[in-house]
Records
---
Amino acid sequence: MKRTIPVIITFVVGMLVIISEFVPHKPFGSIAGTLENWFLIIAGFAIILGVLSLLRMSGHKINSKAPNWQYYLAGIISFSVMVLVGVLWGMRESRGIFGDGENLFNWLGAKPFDYLFNNFFIHLSATMFSLLAFYIASAAYRAFIIRSFESNLLMITAVIIMLGRTSLGNIMTGWLPQNMQFLHLPRIADYIMIYPNSAAQRAIMISAALGVIGSSLRIILGIERSYLGGGN
Amino acid sequence: MAEIMTTIGVWIGVFLTFSIFSFLYRDNPFYRFAEQVFVGLSAAYGFIYIIYNVLIPNLFTPVLSDMSQNWLLIIPGILGILMLVRIYPPAEWISRYPLAVVIGTSAGISLMFYLKSDFMNQIAATMINPFAIPSASAISGSFLIILGTICGVYFFYFSKKQEGLFAIPSKIGIWFLMISFGASFGYTVMARISLLIGRIEFLLRDWLHIIK
Amino acid sequence: MSYINTHVRWERMTLFGILFLAVMIPLILPIGWRTDVSPHVQMVYDLVDKTPPGSAILISFDYEPSTMPELKPMAMSLVDHAWQKGHKVIAVALWPMGVQMANDVFSELTASPSEISSDEIPDVQTTDVKEKDESDEMMTPAVSANSIRRYSSKRYGIDYVNLGFKSGAMVTIKAMGRNIRETFPTDTFGTPIDSLPIMDNIVHLRDLAYIISLSAGDPGLKQWIMVAHDNFKVKVSGGTTAVSAPGFLPYINNRNQLRGLMGGLKGAAEYEKLMGTFGPASIKMDSQSIAHVIILVFIAIGNVRSFRRRRKQRQARDKE
């Protein structure tokens, strides 16, 4: 029952959604519409579940005094502070339990939640991803080595795109006469993107779509049950 | 006071920026602290916005303001709470019911839309008249699209061993894929550099006021 | 062994330092190189430009602060263009942080003249930039960083609205296709949707002239194409980070699944050029170009070193 009923629910819901695509009239259309509204709400709870899992994992590490447990404490404190200020005074778009916190707003120049977002989160998020620029430079130096015809092809394309998609490509070949404009680097870059790149990406897309269709069918028909998790 | 707090905010941003950048030299307490604060704030933001943007307008307000019309919404509310039970391992099986609704809906929708958009429409878009636009680049490009798509899909066919003559389209497919990966590499470099430019612009403009 | 580790570490730090300088110096000393416009960005521009005034359009802010350098300039230029053409802008978000991203763009574009410094007031500089662009190879980088127009007279709820975030991705878009008002009963500020004049006569996605998704990943542009265009036949266009851009090009086809695409910072700079502005994306293109050259030099040096190492190994093997 603990595994059979969920599999039956998945089948019924999946089939209802598929049938509603072909028969949009009542009752299938309205049932599918209701399911969509329910999905929004349940998906919201799923995100809350993710947050609770994170807190549980951090709490476990702090309790067991795992290595670097102090940093997990910092994570929980930052989470708690932001949730607290968000609930008490709201954010730019919403009021909190204590209203809009005008005094705090005048003092900080923004609501506490927005202050944390603008002065902490934005910088952390942006910098975390900007580290990748350095790593790609390091990887390009170490690992991007030409060894075969295929890697040659990859390298030549990368060079053309990297030059052609910047202003430098324009400078390098902008002097070419009109009848040789097909050698203009930005034009070659556009040609590569529109034609051979699109062809390959389309092949990947078609193949991936077959994979998604296959796995969706397996899930609906109950052949694939890994989403139920292990145990009883 | 607001101006002072704004300036303090900029300095906090600079401190956090350099804390993260310090990882380029080696792992250190400043980076680990900044990383965990990032995780905490990220989770908090999602949590708050789910409550204010999804649960309040789509669940609590309709149910509390007009129960007679919206009583049906209590069901997804209950299912959502059952989903949260997943956090308690002995009762984890209860969360399978709402999960089944979510997975079933997602699977049904994905199947239909991937079939239409990524399969049928893409195949139809490949069945083009290569001579439709009378220019050398368009004609050559159209042939490349047809050839590249067919050979690329052929490369992903693993049900029969590709050898001898049967390996030729696969080889051509690999070449097209390599061209695509080269293009992706170029674009990835562009993306990563853009993010770094954004950070350095913040340091130069908002902190040091060297640029406007 | 520790000597090798130290050597490797200092080599890495040198690479990082060179890259940092390569990005920083052009920001301080701009060169002003020109950008060509690619056909796909032109398609996005034409879609916005040819839509009649008074049309309601939807922009989905599906990104977060980490990808702001690429996508925020696109957002600014798009809203600027839409308001120039008299379109009504409806903002939604499939990512939680998209709500703040949308609010930031609207706040900046509707800032009143007293809230911005005098050298940011755009109209005069915009005209200057257009004239220079036609005659000179290099654009004179003397204009302010923010020479995008400001619209302090635009009113929330009438000319633009932020409906907020909803979880559910593809399902959300499908629900919007059926009934936007049920999916978004209020805007992000809690105002009932029925009391917003901009939402009069807007019930389904089909009531919109076009949809633009500014997307940093999943969910985003792909879902809008699949549901909004392929199911509900609404015109869809978009901007993505450069990482995702190559994967969306197959959707630009004879079935018009996607009407144009802005890819990364270059796409944003091209759109700014079409708008006749020298905005935040254009300023960064000099750094982008120099950094690309530096990366190519790194690749070349790495390949030369590898080639020499392999030749030495081959010679050593031949001697044996």
Note: Chain A has a mean pLDDT of 90.
---
Amino acid sequence: MSAIAQLSLSLSDSLDGLVRLVRPSLVIVNGHRFGYGAGVVWAAEGLILTNAHVVRRRAPLVRLDDDGEFEARLVERDEEVDLALLEIDARGLPAMRIAQALPRIGEMVFTFGHPWGQRGYVSGGIVSAIPTARTRGRRGSFPVIRSDAPLAPGNSGGPLVNSAGELVGVNAMIVGGDQSISIPATLARDFVQAALAGRPAIHRQDSPMPEKVL
Amino acid sequence: MSKNVLVELSEAMAAAAEQAGKSTVMVNARRRMPASGILVAADSVLTAEHVVEREDGIRVTLADGSEAPARLAGRDPGSDLALLKLEHPAAPPADAAPTPARVGQLVLVLGRPSEAGIEASLGVVSALGGPVRTGRGAMLERYIRTDTISYPGFSGGPLVDATGKVLGVNTSGLARGLPLTIPVDLAWRVAEALAKHGHVKYGYLGVRSQPVEIPAGTQKALKREQAVGLLVVGVEDDSPAATGGLMVGDILVGIAGSTVSDHDGLFRHLGGEMVGKAARIEVLRGGQVKNLDVTVGER
């Protein structure tokens, strides 16, 4: 086989590995009259991260990748950053690996979610820009990730991951029809830490990287 | 973790965006949002002609965030390209890709529509086309179409390959808002002409014509199968065509050794390189073939 054919096959294998790595951490969040969205397993101890606009007061339902369904408790909700932290009575969940820094412009990113009800849909693109969003909240402004990976209703709350399968953002909205906006995972980390302040520290256990596929 | 191909590709794309971003500038020359431009020389920025709405107070923002005043060196509405001159030399200019774009090739479009920095979108080369009449009175020999997203303000920015080398200049001003890319060799050629002359030369004959069928009998005189020619319906006074002896009623069938059967075909033979040169024009007059030597003028 030619080197180029070999290369595109290994690229394809890498993509397959990425999907296998991320999809177990993808959940469906049923926000009742606020519709369906996506979410990610943030920590193995039953912590689920999603968008604030997907969940309101009423306890949302969370369906895991293995189809287990749980009534979730709302831990914290912040409309300024459009994030919500939910807790379900489950342990040993496959948590996402979380990127330590903002991605670079041009880096490849992949979205996972349930656009138009299509469960577990994957799309890809690159980070197009990292503009500053201005808000009326206490933060005033914060960076957001704009990508050219297509989003649609049902992607809300789902993960934006980098080529290593690490969470770089939480998909939040579509602007101008073709600009996908995600909330940086670095911001989500601060949000979760603040939400859990005062609780005994949880030991975040990242799901192990499958050695073969990545 | 050992690196996989996908991670390497991702890093290559980010590096390409960073590399090409250094020579991608913001061009502030219109009232609405700024657009993009490419440093083609240390003191020259190539941008889209349609984004240069004013000639005074043009400002260019470089990759390092510094702002530089610029003046218009020339514009070519036909290809929607304009050249700006910076007062002081800036960052290193962009590199042209050594080989033309290929269908399926992975590409990035870049733009710098705001002070916030470089922006990028990924895709593949979808199609190569041309020649096409641009609707701006010029013939675009070749163009590139991609499935990238052209964000607002991307006109004038580069299409680059996976190493950050420039494949072309993007504009949405040539095809009624549809984004397309002018291949880098054509764009650089226009930039050179603009730097040298301030404008791009187009050949001029001074005839108005319309396509007509050539009767079978007349085709015999032509000694070739050519069903359509251009009927001359008007000759401008003192034009190259008038001086060369073209008359209303002639059917133009060839120029410079090539067959001509439509306006685009004639147009293609009236490029800037023909200006001042003699072109042998083949016409049918009274059923007979006649060759006329016409010195092509400049439009």
Note: Chain B has five helices and 22 strands.
---
Amino acid sequence: MIKKILSFEEILKGCVKNDNSCKEMMYKSFYGYLMGIILRYTKNPSDSEELVNDSFIKIFKHVGGFKAPKNPEELQRSFKGWIAQIASRTAIDKIRSTKVQFYVDDLAESEHPVTQVSVASELHVNDILNLLNHLPDTQRLVFNLYEIEGFAHDEISKMLNIPESSSRVYLTRSKNKLRTLYLNTMVNSYEKNG
Amino acid sequence: MDKELIEQITAQLQNHEEAYSNGAWERFSEKEKKKRGIAFWPLWAAAALIFIVAGVFFTLNNTAQKQMVVITKPKVKSDAADGGHTDTHSKNDLAQLNNNTNPSTNLITGRPIQTSSIAKPSTEQRNNYSLLNASEALDPVNHNLLENKLSAINLSGLKSKPFEILTEKKTQPIGTPTDFEKLLAHDSYVNQQKPADKSGGNSKWQPDVYVAPAMGNDNKVTMNYGFSLSYAIANKLSISSGVSYASISTTESLNATAPQTLSGKNLASVDAKVRGINVPLELKYSISDKLYTNVGVSALAVLNNSQQNSYIVNQVQSFSAPAVNGYADSKTMIVQEKKVEPQPEANIDPDKYIGFYNFSLGYKQKISKKNNIAIEPFLRLPMKTFSKENLNLTNGGLRLKIDF
């Protein structure tokens, strides 16, 4: 069967009407996008698809409530923003539920095994994700929320139930750790490459 | 450099999208279906409810529906008639035209004109159709052109053409509603037929016979035999009634001591046996394919009621034994004895009916295509105590049923 190529708006309307083929198109076109977001939060790759799917369940359930912007050109962009928020919330909820003592600082983790060898001069996403994987969960989360999602510290503190000052501390620590990790990786690779 | 690193990370991550992994959607939709099956059952229930209400509505309004369908048909006819009307009008005009050309007929009043207008149409119509058919055969594609041509050529052709178009145009918009109404009518017809079919077949009515050994509080087994008929009012719910021969026995022991007086007697226990025709009314709910439960009430019409009372009575007995010295030694003793007497007719409970609450849980097993056997432990609780001795007629047993 030849499927009609639908515009994004039509797909969105179809999803509101719970049309399965529209949902499929929506899923397939935003799977990668959401997976990219989820991977920033989770170390465990087996969890990631589950989280993506959980996000999609929420998206399809609440897609009727998505308010389209007045400017139709911004539709896709604002929709992406909306689903990104859902995905990150889903990931945060998951991290929260798995970690009972969420905001206990894991500073004890002093040594980070550096296994990744970066060959390319420019950092590749996989390398970055690997660097992130070496961050303690809380630091990683705060880094994500602040630097990538663009939340302010007061928002993060509410989201994670931590004091605002802790959020700042975590951010600084995460950045420092990333830098040292990066340097170590680079040094290692230089050493390896001679 | 440090700043660059973080910026680079941020930029990279923000723009990063993973590739679509094959089969992800399939996994997702499968998972969602499963979830939906569980999570959205209230929706299904609501849908079922709506369906039932709609079904009832349609069956009740079926006669009205049918009328509507009938009404629509005359509409089509009336349209055709309308078309015919314009036609006759045209013929009237034509007739008038003819009349005008004929001064002699013009002099004659109304009646002859009418007759001529009536007489003419048939021939006129034929001519028109033949004209139309011929022109359509020549140019069947461009109808608008045809219309124009006709109007240019023939006045009667113009008049008859709109008639054609009218009917074509009008039947189509009517066609859709009639389709829709037909659908509704068909739906309601199906709804109406369905219960009729089922009640006609054996699927809704289920007769069965059973034998049920039962035991009351006296540990005596009594037998019950019966026939019951159940009618399925819903998928899992059916209502059943029937008739059965029931016999119930019970005993009541009183803490009687020996009577104080010599001639007195104390009632020690009462054994009662009630036999009658039991008519139950029960609601049966199928928990699963094989398990079901029954809750209901029944009325027992008493045919025979016998009570036997056991009394403790005092009896004087004298023993005499010869002693060694030749004297006879005689002793008189009061001995307690049990004596069983049937309850006098006058004292037997006059109740002709006894009400029971019935509870049972059954297990059904198919033995052939049509037949099932079922084992059904049951409990019968009387609505009130029986007779003045407060006999408790509670009994329970095992019903062995055969459906057919």
Note: The two ends of chain A are 57 Å apart (CA to CA).
---
Amino acid sequence: MTDLILAAEQGGVILDHPAVLAPFIVAIPLASAVLLLLFGKRIGKPAGVIASAAVGLAFLASVVSFVEVLSFPKEMRGWVSETFTWIEVGRFQVDANLLVDPLSAVMLLVVTGVGALIHVYSIGYMKGDERYSRFFAYLNLFVAFMLILVLAENVLLLYVGWEGVGLCSYLLIGFWFEKPAAAGAAKKAFIVNRIGDFSFLLGILLLAATAATLSMGAINAEALNPNGPGPGISGGLATAAALLLLGGAAGKSAQIPLYVWLPDAMEGPTPVSALIHAATMVTAGVYMVARLSPVFEAGGDLALMVVGIIGAATALWAAIMAAFEYDIKRVLAYSTISQLGYMFLAHGVHAYSAGIFHLTTHAFFKALMFLGAGAVMHALAGETDMRKMGGLRKAMPITGTTFMLGWLAICGIIPFAGFFSKDAILASAWADGQYVLWAVGVFTAFLTAFYMSRMYFRVFEGPLRVPEGVHVHDVAPTMAAALIPLGLLSVVGGAINLPGLLTLEHFLEPVLGESHVPAGLTPWVLGGIALLVAVGGILLARSLYMTRASSLRRRRAYARIPWLVDAARNKFYVDQIYGYTIVLPGKAFSGYLANVFDTRFIDGIVTGTGRMIARTSENLRGLQTGYVRNYASLFLLGVVVILALLLLRVMFG
Amino acid sequence: MSVDPGYYLVLAGLMFTIGVVGVLTRRNAIVIFMFVELMLNAVNLIFVTFARQHGTIDGQVLVFFVLVVAAAEVVVGLAIISLIFRHRVSSNVDEINLLKR
């Protein structure tokens, strides 16, 4: 405490400590959501402005908190904001405490910053929708839950945010629930997440039971120091806990085997996709693994290896599917899954800060590209098939240009944001000696550059091609207001963590530990390889989509790998496999329970009991006289008998 | 000045006995109802007496419960009686013996 005051005097600090603002960061969007849910209809059109302003305010508060965190010396950056006692039963007490430290400060900026831009964009995008205010209420709620998740100091509060974003994703993916596909996609997202959530719940219960505390700081301390005075978290128990947590992260962050919900989630309005893919929801798993990284470290090589392998496999798997997809939003969805795979790959090689770095830059360019795709759909009357588009950059200069920035960023072209963050992950994999993971990462980088270029060339370059009877128009001002800042961030976002300076990684060190980056020439060579591979991917896409001989070459290339094309276009039949192995048996079993077990057995017991009693009482009716006075006298007689017995007991007992 | 608690108990006993006899002998449902109330209040009196005697408030609290329950009971009971009256144009309990086979 005295240290704090000392630092406050030295650093010229405005607030007592940054955590003072934390409750407001959550409360403002939450209050706005409640307001819009209750009075949205009456508020009408200003709802979008209110919602955007709420997230904007939260963003300002986050910036202030972030600057405050920076103004303190490194070893003191970490504050708990005590809000209120949430649960109190006997000696068990849970406080709804919020934690502000470098990690949550960075996440706050991403969530509220990108979230606010998406809100602004939605004002234009959702104009004229009949549930306009409701949409913004859900968006606000989504952001609020994500902020709870990010700021939570204990695992229970984290779980509240965790489930909250799950609920909001359900509401928003199914926002146009009149469409059966949207309703189905919402259900799918919710149920698949539920599976992951169950695993996550088991994980946090295991941790809480072992460490005898819910505080993540304390749990991490036990994991870091298993031989200390506390119970300690280590060995097989830590591995089990880490794997259970990973199951939850795989659900939220769409990793193998639970990624299937994310492509279908494209049924929601496009800003929702941007929000889910960039600022909220899918980043939750990545954040959680980083936040509880000591548990994963304590889980040993096995736990981290599983994390790394799942990440690398997901990155590759989704990139292959993206390369053959024609739906513009689905390509972006697979690309998100693939990029999330990179983040898990980073976590798997101890490079937690590299994972968070990629999360941040990915939030910039993926939000940008989703919003760009939304602008394209808007201009083309809801068309999402890339085969029916072409040459749109000239017709939509703002969208086309910003999208190009995002494209270069995700391809990993220097000096755009994606180059630095992807390179940080690949370099960490190399430094950790995981050459196989590194190779998979590099190959995925090639595929990424290929499929993103394929998309960019098809949609924005070449001759103008639009569906019939569509008049192409560029974005509304509010939508441009979101696209342009995101475009700039996609260009300069990498600067937050330049090689050699390592600002972000140094900043995150107090929470995530030191990062190991190879020394000497190695990082330059690795970066060069990644760059070459990216350029190769772009050139391949160019030759297959931009030249006169393209369609012929494509046909020839597809003819060489017909099985792969077929399988990838059918999403590797994963939905069918899940359908036959899990959904169908599940439906059959619940059908049996509902139609046979419930009606025959459960209802049998209930109606049988009823019938038995009815029959018995029918027989007992013979005893009735029907005269009230008879019954009353019997009461009296009974009372007298009981009293007499009591009296006898007192006298002789 | 305080009254000997015995008197209260005797009074309560008398009230209760009157109630019992009334319930057993009268035929009009409404009148029976009133006797039931008399019995309830006799018990209330005993509660209060003992509460006073022991210097605790448990008994007084119980009286409140009894009052509330009695109020509820009156509502339901009167509703039943008035329905029966509408149906049979009588409130004579001896004429109501549906339960008998």
Note: The beta strands of chain A are 79-89, 92-100.
